[in-house]
Design a protein that fits this description.
The chain is α/β, with parallel strands linked by helices. The protein contains 6 helices and 9 strands, in the order αββαβαβαββαβββα.
């Protein structure tokens, strides 16, 4: 893993499109989201992500923010032991996992604040993957013409996170895309569109809530004397 991080930063780290997140200490560090991070044991992650680890990236040119996927509540403590910098919830289906359930975001944010972790709730416009997982109908979430997306965004804002992630921009096979969409049908597939709204409906909702989030985040930071990163 150390060699992978080194390769990415050496090869792409100076590119203007390479994302860096400004921390509370003023450092701008790369941010890596790790899917299924819980599969690897905390002791192995600690080799890379803690200062005392034999392959530690901390306080080196390859230092970065590593964000773990939280699926179950018990994963919180593995994430701490591993040396991750934060958690994200990824799944767009409210209620699918502990992490993706809106009702738990407030508690997760308190946990992260206590241990100085970044909490990143993940929101999505809806979910339907039955074209590739026909047995998974219980996790389908109707978009309700944008109301599902706005409910998710509202729940995320209420937790006062430093970052909100969107799942996803263009994963059509799971029905979570927010990019422009027009009616389209092939011999095997009918693609979701946003009728009766415009093709850009979900991009416009994203802009609306991004502006709202930016304003509320600034106000919250000022009221609580926090840095706005």
């Amino acid at each position: 893993m150390y060699e992978n991080v080194k390769y990415i930063i050496d090869k792409y780290g100076n590119h203007p499109a390479f994302y860096r997140y400004k921390t509370k200490t003023g450092n701008s560090l790369p941010m890596f989201y790790v899917y299924d991070s819980y599969i690897t044991k905390p002791e192995q992650w600690a080799n890379l992500l803690t200062i005392s680890g034999p392959w530690s990236i901390r306080n080196s040119p390859y230092d970065a923010l590593f964000i773990a996927l939280l699926v179950e509540d018990r994963h919180k403590y593995d994430i701490l032991q591993s040396g991750f910098n934060g958690i994200y919830t990824y799944f767009a289906t409210n209620g699918f996992t502990y992490g993706s359930s809106y009702e738990n975001w407030g508690r997760l944010k308190l946990f992260c604040d206590h241990f100085q972790l970044i909490f990143i709730p993940s929101v999505g416009p809806g979910y339907i993957d039955t074209s590739i997982r026909p047995w998974n109908t219980q996790n389908t979430r109707n978009r309700v013409n944008g109301k599902y997306y706005e409910t998710a965004l509202s729940a995320a804002l209420q937790a006062h996170p430093s970052v909100i992630s969107i799942t996803s921009f263009n994963e059509w096979h799971e029905g979570t895309q927010i990019e422009k969409a027009v009616p389209k049908r092939t011999s095997n597939t009918v693609y979701l569109d946003y009728w009766p709204h415009k093709p850009s409906h979900y991009l416009e909702l994203t802009r609306k809530w991004s502006e709202k989030y930016s304003k509320e985040r600034t106000t919250y930071a000022l009221e609580n004397q926090l840095p706005v990163s």
